[in-house]
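[09:14] KT: can someone run the structure on this one? pasting the chain below
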Amino acid sequence: MNTTLQKADLQLDDYLDLLNLATNLGDTRWQKEIIRKLAYTYPAVQCKQPQ
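[09:31] RB: done, structure tokens below
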């Protein structure tokens, strides 16, 4: 296996960590972007948009 060429796919936990960070920073634009990505990557999961 060639370890120098690794695909940088984020897992659900990674997205949730980023969403938590965006929430703690109060960055609603970033939160919405992460939620859109989550909804696209995991379409069966309902995501609530921040107000």
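[09:33] KT: thanks! The helical segments are 12-25, 28-41.
[09:34] RB: yep, looked fine to me
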